[in-house]
Design brief:
six-stranded mixed β-sheet; Rossmann fold; 23 helices; alpha/beta; 38% helix
């Protein structure tokens, strides 16, 4: 058990739970019919306790949280059950009556601060809103409280930050503002709904540490909603595992981890990348390929790359002197926090930006020197897969049209052969043929990412650049996509440049790694060397921030939850 878990478990108990949910059922009305999405859910959360609700997208965990705080969508309703807040059933309360509870007794930390903070209001004005709603005091008292809250959540120069707008703050700082808003009135219960899932692991750790400090200080109960069992393992005293609207199992964190009662929980454990060992034998062939490589085997070479934006005093050097090679048929990962420059490198390698200085070569050919048609043909050889498949897929086109489009653009084959090629690659990415006639909105997130991969591979590229291509996915879907990428690499001889902020994911797919910080590479080498013997403190900090890492395989031995691994 981690220190955080031990501390949570040792919180001073009080008579009765802060929150007691009993036999809760929730449904949505869609297209004239009722669909039950939460069924007979029961659990308690005590004062000073962290209870994690874990499950994939669609499991009902967020709907459960929304029902507790009275923020269900307009077409949602509580069909049965009770929600007791310190013994008072609030399940049947009107929206107006619930307004008196929200913020004051129950607070919510949402997932996306970009959609939760008013962009036309200053940070101070955003934060003051909850205080005004609950008549905290006159304007000077509210202003003083805003500064106090910003300071309390660790935001430097709070007076200056209070006058700034959301777009002027980093993602981590904006999430701290949401936490400040949640604790403004010192509520009895905080619901954190995927509150750190969009953050880098180091920022995530700082946010979770902050929540834990505040919980200990104020005795606040926390209901932590997440798809990441590793995060729950680090931070919660008890875990509820949800699937298809029902609780599969619940219990003390250590018990659930050591002895998962259901196959579904075992799957979640085995799919959490930070809680499984690196299967070194699975990467043995590509690791040997790297070790034996000669100059001709280095399909991508980046030398002293500089990427600068703007000029004069406003110039910003996003990438500064970056060099690395990628051996054919292997996976090279570039890891680092947001703002480290890794995506800028990815776009330059894919030919979407011209370097300010330095060179990028593909099989010895300088990319920067390519003219219009040459660059077009280059992009046939190097394909890019983005993080968000919903944004990168045309919502008006069917899957068949989306995957066919690159073949149309390069005039490859006739209509009949194109249809056959598209069908082949849809099958290769393990999608049913029926998906060909669907629109992106009719597919799950994992299915959409498979479509994006099929579209990238349909041109038979040599190199695929994957820019945070699995970071937005649930751990089980993420594990499926990673396995798919490894299979396709073996079958098609693909070379991957894998961009990620998540070292736990990188550990399972990379052969070589470059670690970036503020535009520079601070460490590079084989994946085994970087993970086993990091030489830089920054790399060690990234490794230490991986959730569940300290529990890892040791906590799961004998549970039946581990994948087959070797040292």
């Amino acid at each position: 058990m981690s220190d955080a878990t031990a501390t949570t478990a040792g919180a001073t108990p009080v008579p009765g739970p802060i929150l007691s949910v009993r036999d809760l059922s929730v449904s949505y009305t869609t297209r004239g019919s009722d669909v039950t999405v939460v069924s007979d859910v029961s659990f308690d959360v005590g004062a000073g306790e962290v209870v994690a609700v874990v499950g994939e997208s669609g499991s009902g965990k967020t709907t459960t949280a929304q029902a507790v705080i009275g923020l269900l969508a307009e077409n949602g309703r509580i069909d049965s059950g009770s929600i007791l807040l310190n013994g008072t059933d609030i399940a049947g309360w009107s929206p107006k009556r619930l307004q008196s509870v929200r913020g004051k007794r129950i607070a919510l930390i949402p997932q996306d601060p970009n959609n939760s903070l008013n962009p036309v209001k200053t940070i101070g004005a955003n934060l003051a809103e909850v205080l005004r709603i609950h008549h905290y005091g006159p304007a000077p008292v509210i202003r003083a409280r805003v500064i106090e809250l910003l300071e309390r959540v660790g935001i430097p120069e709070p007076e200056r930050r209070a006058k700034q707008y959301p777009h002027e703050l980093s993602g981590g700082m904006k999430q701290r503002v949401l936490i400040a808003s949640a604790i403004a009135l010192e509520p009895e219960l905080i619901i954190a709904d995927e509150a750190t899932s969009a953050l880098d692991v180091t920022v995530q750790k700082r946010i979770l540490d902050l929540l834990d400090d505040l919980r200990r200080e104020l005795g606040t109960a926390i209901l932590f909603v997440t798809h990441d069992l590793a995060v729950a393992a680090d931070r919660a005293s008890r875990i509820l595992v949800m699937r298809a609207g029902t609780i599969q199992e619940q219990g003390d964190t250590a018990v659930v981890l050591a002895n998962p009662a259901t196959d579904y929980t075992k799957t979640l454990l085995s799919d959490a990348p930070s809680m499984t060992l690196r299967d070194r034998d699975a990467r043995a062939a590509s690791r040997d390929r790297v070790a034996a490589a000669v100059a001709a085997d280095r399909v991508v070479s980046v030398t002293d790359l500089v990427q600068q934006f703007g000029s004069g005093k406003s110039a910003f050097r996003a990438v500064d002197g970056v060099s690395f090679d990628v051996v054919r048929g292997t996976t090279h990962a570039i890891v680092g926090e947001s703002g480290s420059g890794k995506t800028t490198v990815a776009r330059a390698v894919a030919g979407f930006s011209k370097p300010t200085a330095g060179a990028i070569t593909l099989d010895g050919v300088d990319v920067a020197g390519l003219k219009r048609e040459q660059l077009r043909q280059f992009r046939r050889r190097v394909q890019l897969v983005y993080q968000n498949p919903f944004s990168s897929l045309d919502p008006r086109q069917t899957v068949e049209k989306i995957v066919t489009e690159p073949l149309d653009n390069f005039s490859i084959g006739d209509g009949r052969s194109r249809r056959a090629t598209v069908a082949e690659f849809i099958d290769r990415v393990a999608l049913p043929s029926s998906a060909l006639h669907r629109l992106p909105r009719e597919l799950s997130g994992g299915q959409r990412q498979r479509v994006a991969i099929a579209r990238a591979l349909v041109l038979h590229p040599e190199v695929v650049v994957l820019d945070e291509a699995v970071s937005a996915l649930d751990v089980t879907v993420q594990a499926q996509i990673l396995a798919l990428l490894e299979t396709l690499q073996g079958e098609l001889g693909l070379t991957y440049l894998f961009i990620s902020h998540d070292l736990a994911v990188v550990r399972h797919i990379a052969d070589t790694i470059s670690v970036m910080q503020t535009g520079r590479i601070v460490e590079s080498g084989s994946a085994d060397a970087v993970f086993d013997n990091p030489t830089q403190q920054y790399t060690r900090d990234l490794l230490d921030a991986i959730p569940g890492r300290h529990l890892g395989a040791g906590a799961l031995e004998g549970s039946g939850a581990l994948r087959s691994t070797t040292v």
